Amino acid sequence: MKFADMGLRASSLAALTKLGFADSTEIQAQAIPLLLADDIDFIGQAQTGTGKTAAFLLPLFEKLDPKARHVQALILAPTRELANQIEGEIAKFTSVGDRVRSLAVYGGTPISGQLRSLRSDAPSIVVGTPGRVIDLIDRGALRLEDVRYVILDEADEMLDMGFFDDVQTIIAKSPHKKVWMFSATMPAPIQEMVKRHFKEPKIVKVTKQQLTTNSVEQTYLVARPSDMVEALCRYLDSIDDIYGLVFTRTKIGAQQLADALNSRGYATESLHGDMEQDARDFTMKRFKEKKCKLVACTDVAARGIDVSDLTHVINVELPMDLESYVHRIGRTGRGGSKGIALSIVTPMEFRKIALIERITKAPIKRVELPGVDEIRGRLISKAAKQVGELATTVKIETHPEFAEFAAATEEMSKEDMQKALYARTLAPTIKKYREARDLTAMAPAGRNRTQGLTGQPGDVNRGPARGEGQRFIINVGKIDGANPGDLLKFLHRTAGLRGSEVGRIDIRDKVSFFEIDANQGARLHKVKGSTWGQRKVMVDIADRVAAGAGGAPDQGARVRRGPPTA
């Protein structure tokens, strides 16, 4: 079904045309007309990557009062990344005509700026993680009396991550709302919530078809956040040849990555939405003529790229939705050739790999970066091969000056010739490995070092592996007002740990648990002597405490799975 046939306002259609969208997905075709037609409670059951965001945003825009100066819609998302993505989609879909004011709120960042924006910007839509939304409600900054729509995106993920009580509290505090929910699955707790809070909801269920292709070998490797570019460079040095796209989520990220790769000697162009059409055409001409072998780009900028012989698609940042992932990797493996899709992920992104495997029903093979010595050997072999190919492919008859050049260099020794070839082909690349160290990263538990899932799709232990990651206990919990965002800030302030270095966080009544790389554990000595409110803080290895006490404290508390998200 075409968007033009749905009755959407002209500005939305113009924005969709600008983005290159004409035909809707199945969930959009079924949901949008229903939501436009009447004010109803709604349930959309569809997998990640089916276009759910547009399915609820486009009809929502039609129902907002542009003159109102209060929050009219609240969208709940399980992670800060998804909240930011939804706010980004709001900007894209309202890029023509009047912009819709929106605000993303989530933990792990100072609340002061979000408080100011709520008071001064008067957003029509607030997109947030449940924990931060509850915090803003409790502070009186976010009032729900006038909220007309509460939208739950990825409801089953919010259940899995332990946010469901907060979700139901938020719904109950919105007296005049319609509830729209999108979820890939409908487990019993969600069905109970529907009975309690929904009024005769309309239900749309979409079965997602398999989204992968046999012509693409899907792989991933793990790198620490600080090593992402280095890991990409080492991968490039370790393979024989590449002609491909490297994806980031943002325009700035694409440009920065291209700059970083060029500084390391990899001829790379960038392609992003801020480029003028002439610059875009020039980049694509160079790429198609293989004058550059890599293009760093965003999903939006990559639309319309039609190159049939790509060897690789590399995700330096995974997209937020599965549909974009499939579109990305589908650009390789065309024309009967086998393509390679590589995703470089941080130790905190294993859950996303597992989700892609579960939905596509295809394994993603873990690969390891070769050691420094092996990469040096491969670079030497590649340089020697390059020299040999040049010698056999150059056509002397088209270069009448060759005889004169040969005579001028006749007295050069073989060693001098080799030195010159080395300086020209190998020296700039190999010198950075003289003092380099091997890159290591935490491995996911439940996964083999070279394979994808070891059990059924989706059956993944999300904690770090023993010996590579470690779980710690800290003597502050819910009774102290602790939440994941505040705990992250505390660890950053006292121990200098970045949010990307902290894994799963479990907030219990009297204590909390958090995971970090075991190699970082020594940094926690800086926490000694710190206070949380009036409480003197103590941190210890969780297994040691559990062994001494006969079991972990507060066993019955709900576990918040996955990396800190609110």
Commentary on this structure:
There is one protein chain. This protein has 566 residues and is α/β, with parallel strands linked by helices. It folds into four domains: 3-205, P-loop containing nucleotide triphosphate hydrolases (Rossmann fold); 216-366, Rossmann fold (3-Layer(aba) Sandwich); 372-433, no CATH class; 469-549, 2-Layer Sandwich (Alpha-Beta Plaits). It is built from 21 helices and 20 strands. The strands form four sheets. A seven-stranded parallel β-sheet has the order 3-4-2-5-6-1-7, with helices on both faces. The protein has a seven-stranded parallel β-sheet with strand order 10-11-9-12-13-8-14, sandwiched between helices. Strands 16-17-15-20 form a four-stranded antiparallel β-sheet. Helix 2 packs parallel to helix 3 (52-63), helix 3 packs across helix 4 and helix 6 packs across helix 8. The chain starts with 9 loop residues before the first helix and ends in a 17-residue tail after the last helix.
CATH structural class of the largest domain: Alpha Beta
Strand proportion, as a percent range, falls in 15-25%
Please give the count of helices.
21
Tell me the domain tally: 4
Report the principal-axis shape: globular
Kindly report the spatial arrangement of strands forming the biggest sheet: 3-4-2-5-6-1-7
Largest sheet features: 7 strands, parallel
β-strand number: 20
- Give me the Rg, rounded: 27 Å
Tell me which CATH architecture of the largest domain applies here.
3-Layer(aba) Sandwich
Structural class of the secondary elements? alpha/beta
Helix content: 25-40%
CATH topology of the largest domain: Rossmann fold
Q: What oligomeric state best describes the polypeptide chains here?
A: single chain
Overall mean pLDDT stands at 82
**Separation, N- and C-terminal Cα atoms:** 37 Å
Query: What are the segments in which pLDDT stays under 50 over at least 5 consecutive residues?
Result: 443-468, 546-566
CATH H-tier superfamily of the largest domain: P-loop containing nucleotide triphosphate hydrolases
